[in-house]
Amino acid sequence: MNAEVLDNKTQVSIIIPTYNESQNIVKILRTISKYVPKNISTEAIVVDDNSPDGTGKIVEEYLKDFKKVAGYTINIIHRKAKDGLSSAILNGIQNAKGETIVVMDSDFSHPPQIIPKMIEAFKQYQCDLVVASRYIREGKIEGWTTKRKLMSKIAIMIAKRGLGVKIKDPMSGFFAFKKNIISGLNFDALGYKFLLEILVKTNGINIKEIPYTFENRQFGSSKLDNSIILDYVKSVWKLYKSKNSSITNEKRGSVHFISKAARFFTVGASGFIVNYVISMLFTSGLTELWYLHANIFGIIASISTNFILNKIWTFEDRDFSRKKTFSQFGKFGLFSSLGALIQLGMVFWLVDSHNVAYPFALISAIGTAAFSNFILNKKLTFKEKLGG
């Protein structure tokens, strides 16, 4: 697909989703006006999710006294409820007049001075999608805790391993694209990662990453919470199913049975039960172990039962010769251990840092780890293609 080169008549639409950004919104709109190319007609579209702090009303008041800058206009969309970031972005795109769409946050973590560089990249590299990246050379992150950086790395690993995404920063919320590349596509608009949907659902587009420095917000509060993490897991799973929708059910004779992916997750469900029961058993009145120690016993039990069931049922391998079985179990255990680390870290983070009830934290962590286990073990332990 050949990208259209921007010219003086091309209009750019900058989508700015907001929720409780009263301390940032006017300043970001003013700053954007300083950096948008003066020879290109540009509109900023604020999509507000009925912010309790009056963000939408503040924009309305600002527009009353707004002195139009050459080629720069501001519009606002008022939504009735908080329906999520991706949904807000999609709403903004549906109302955008521009041929080129820029998506950015309003809290200055995405510096407006990068916008001209993104627009210039379309001309210079003849690309369809420009991603402002924190993880390429000269890109960096300032103000994040070690825990936040680790979570970002894990999310990127899941996107790359599970969805086959190639770019360095698929989790970026700062990107620009030619609107025609999403024509005819259906978006789930679930969670916070609209870029990830574009990367998975478009084919043959030219992508360019450019570096920028992500700076943590100074005003307002971060939107990252437990619901965002769960939404990310749900959205990745939906995208995975969409990407592999061509997988058909296998047949044995005249019997129609479920795919290996469904088998793996059925086994995972049994492992979930084993993990949960054993973990809760060791925290009961019988032993009263510390919840993390109990969780370790649950993990060991579920890894063992999952290996046996996957070997026999999912992958139909009934060769239990000692050398082969121990080799396979070693690999299975090794790659499952990464999921275990994710599970332990997530349980500790939810319980100790956010005071989430242990049973709920355990369910959330096991679900996240199970998805990671499926991707890694299918690809690396049992040597199968992700789509097969």
Short descriptors:
Spore Coat Polysaccharide Biosynthesis Protein SpsA, Chain A; disordered N terminus; 388 residues; 7-stranded mixed β-sheet; 2 domains; elongated
Description:
The protein is an alpha/beta fold. It has 2 domains: 12-221, Spore Coat Polysaccharide Biosynthesis Protein SpsA, Chain A, CATH 3.90.550.10; 244-381, no CATH class. The chain is 49% helix and 13% strand. It has a 7-stranded mixed β-sheet. Strands 6-9 form a two-stranded parallel sheet. Strands 10-11 form a two-stranded antiparallel ribbon. Helix 8 (260-282) runs antiparallel to helix 9. The chain is elongated.
Please tell me the total number of domains: 2
Task: Determine the CATH superfamily of the largest domain.
Answer: Spore Coat Polysaccharide Biosynthesis Protein SpsA, Chain A
Largest sheet: 7 strands, mixed
Instruction: Classify the helix fraction into a percent range.
Output: 40-55%
Proportion of residues in β-strands: 5-15%
Examine the coordinates and then state which fold CATH places here, giving the name of the CATH topology of the largest domain: Spore Coat Polysaccharide Biosynthesis Protein SpsA, Chain A
CATH arch. level architecture of the largest domain: Alpha-Beta Complex
| CATH class (first level) name of the largest domain | Alpha Beta
Straight-line N-to-C gap: 27 Å
Shape: elongated
Main-sheet strand order equals 3-2-1-4-7-5-8
From the alpha carbons, calculate the radius of gyration and give it in angstroms.
24 Å
